[in-house]
Amino acid sequence: MEKELEHQFVTNLERDQNIAHKICRIYTNDQASHNDLFQEITIQLWKAYPKFRGDAKFSTWMYRVALNTAITLYRKKKRGIQTQDYDTVHFRIKAEEYNDETEQQLKLLYNAVKELNDIDKALVFLYLEDKNYREISETLGISEVNARVKMNRVKTKLKHILNP
Amino acid sequence: MDELELLKKDWKKQDTNYPKLSYDQIYKMLWKQSSSIVKWIFVISLIEFLFWGVLNIFFADNEYWKEMERLHLKDFTIAMYVINYLITIYFIYRFYINYRRISSTDDAITLMDNILKTRKTVKYYIGYILISTGIITLVYSYFMIYDHAHTEGVSEVSKYTFETLDWVKFIGIGLIILTLLLGVIWLFYRLIYGILLKKLYRNYKELKKLEM
Q: How far is the alpha carbon of A69 from chain B, nearest alpha carbon, in Å?
């Protein structure tokens, strides 16, 4: 029974692991922290898994637990000075169809997102993942109207960071 | 906002650029130790309950009971102990219920609310301990002073008798020590939980700000 549950869980997580990696990407700045957060998300998902019922999709459920881990439960470990800009090294692969200007703009955008606070990052993340306002409000526990208001403020904030 | 749309487009393109962990790698992670703040709050709270519980037993040695008997406070003390343990058990029960309620499957605000509730239970417990200790100390002091004033034998043997001024000094020094002790305990708690809950409070406020 337990073995069956483990197998089910790991299979699900292996399939949907990108959700956790994306959250780690937004909330951490180096590879070691990325791995730490991913690890903690996995533990929290596994701990909460008995409560997961099949009536929702695993991925839908995973968004909530993983974000809660990043915003609330996870405690950063102290680390030494980081020498590498991990975002550019590991993820941003220059796509052929972008011109230099777009490429530059994207880099600035990613950096701007990194400057936001935890809650604003969550909003941007959910927006980038095409979640609607109902889902955003249910994930964070705020009303739909407030999720909209907040989202608009985040957009303004990003504009300010980009054009100070 | 066209910038965010641009970001979204790129975000989707990057989908294939993430690390890909194998089944075995993920499986191994299930058994690693969590370092979540909930775990730390749980551990620290248990230590707190234990610390104050043990302290109570430690102080109540035979001599203490003899002294209580002499002061005709034995029944009172026993009653205090029983009440104290009942209240402690109630606090531990509440703490456990709150702890069980913490679930990462809740929405963010509910999760934060529940974490803060467990923390508050322990805070109230410590508050109760400090206040009740203060009151009991006052009651005992009163009886001891009363006893001292009425035990002629003692005042004959000791050539030194307490004058009013000495009492004021005695009580004054006692109060200063008590205040210092409480101050240290308070600082200690601010430090532990300040570090532990800094991020949670910040994010909690950020979400609550909107709901007002």
A: 7
